[in-house]
């Protein structure tokens, strides 16, 4: 069954995303979460999620580094990475592209946009 | 000796006249003397000839030559008688007084053999001219007597008389001249003194007065001139003093102004109309680490690069506008140049365009503060997003859970209070969401404007078609039009040329203006009209909304200023949309303005230059971010 990993150092954001993605969990998707980049890499290696929501600004290891590791590892490079970034920071956009990010969503995000994207990536139809 | 010019001229005329008169008189006198003496000699000669003829009849008949010789010799002693000779009736000379021989001419003369006295002129070689008088003796039967009167004596006497007369006339003339000179000198000497005095006055020498004591017109003139000189002297002294005072005052002002300019903290650069530097102050030399001598007389372009020349060019083109730009200073510092044309009213000063003046302020620390401010705003906005994400996200979840799982299970049948509470909960949740979105927009706009103002925006200038930009903006705002049932009218001139602009930023401007137009229009339409006017394109958004009052029109392009009553009206925007538009349009070298009538609608317009806008790559002087702050504003 599909797995989605949520990575953010802010527990409220993790909680929010977990709640937003609850309908998918009800449809058999496994939701995982990690509070920093290091743990995220461990979880990715162990669980091989289909999709990762990745915050940029995190202690220990930031989102770009996580993304770079994932995209440079042959076994992991197909994982769909959605970067959660702050709007208007041009540098972030450039870094995201350089790191191989598949999609980015600016904070504060729109719930329907998240749901739409997950449906698209996991080829599901959950509302 | 001073001889007046008048006297000299008069003297020449007098001499000429004198010569004519004297010569006429002398010639006339000479002629009279000649005529009288000739007559007298003729009479005298005739008498002598007759006397000899009468007294020599017998002697002649006897042919007593010795007696005749003795007789005629005594006549030679009479003054004027030159020769006497006696001929017989045959014409043979019997006696004569010629020494030693009878001249050939006498033989040639012969005798006329008339019975009366015959007078003729004779010229004897080497002896001169003579009057020859022939007297017959007994009517020529016995012989003839010839007496020669010397004409030379007549000529000599005539000459002497003429010389005497001329001498006398000359003496009289010379005496008269001396007399006239003395008289004229007496008149002209004070005139000369006056002339000399007038000359001194003309050269502003009022030191010595003129010394003329006479009481005639000249004395009166001298007195008047002296009094005039005194007055003039006073006036001159007064003016001289006034001029000296003015010069001193001017020097003080100049020293003061120079001190002000030299002590200015800002750098000052003054150029002529060709861009040649003619004044700099110490602050400027320090800013650029150049010597004054390295700059004066040189062209701005050669010293500061083409960017500066471009800035000056703008002030030449629009002398009534102020242009600003960032410049690179020495030691990696940054300055802000404020340039304007030096223009004077031609009618008032005689000068028109005099050049340009540029003030440069070191804004390195301000830039640093700006950078820190932008960084701070960037951090704050980032930090605000996280809690805002939670607020908006959880509210959204609450709303969807309530709508999908809670409200459908509540039995409100007949319970009005419960129904009212549910309505209120829905409304409050909507408010949280819409205000949260407004807060998000505000954070985004604050970030945008702080970046624009700090020149930290990276511009992607490219060829864009305005129609594409407008269509993109229209589709982004289409839902707003649908919600309020407002008609959108697209009126774009066909075949518009492309413009050089940042596509995303221009779309942002159009979205801002379109959403504003819809926001303030309750019914009717919003027209987007695009027209090419000379070298620019004018984009206008014409709405049929509530319009803007005169007072509000002034402030809507200022940050956080919104039209309408902010105390009673619910704010609907961030108050930063139009200031952001203004910054973007002005970066593109365009203008943005509004025309509006309350209750009739508003027309928001902006212009874009069709020619390539000034590139921000201002070599050496301009930083790449500098041009972001380059704006033109009307002189106050």
How does this structure look, described?
- The complex is a heterodimer of chains A (127) and B (636).
- Chain A has 127 residues and is of the alpha/beta class.
- Helices cover 46% and strands 21% of the residues of chain A.
- In chain A, helix 3 runs parallel beside helix 4.
- Chain A is globular.
- Chain B has 636 residues and is α+β, with helices and mostly antiparallel strands.
- Helices cover 53% and strands 19% of the residues of chain B.
- Chain B is built from 17 helices and 18 strands.
- In chain B, a hairpin with a 5-residue loop joins strand 8 (321-328) and strand 9.
- In chain B, helix 5 packs across helix 6 (217-262) and helix 13 packs parallel to helix 17.
- The interface between A and B is medium-sized, with 17 and 23 residues.
Structural class of chain A: alpha/beta
Question: Into which percentage range does the β-strand content of chain B fall?
Answer: 15-25%
Radius of gyration of chain B, taken over Cα atoms and rounded to an integer in Å:
64 Å
CATH architecture of chain A: 3-Layer(aba) Sandwich
Total strands of chain B: the figure is 18
**Biggest β-sheet description of chain B:** 6 strands, antiparallel
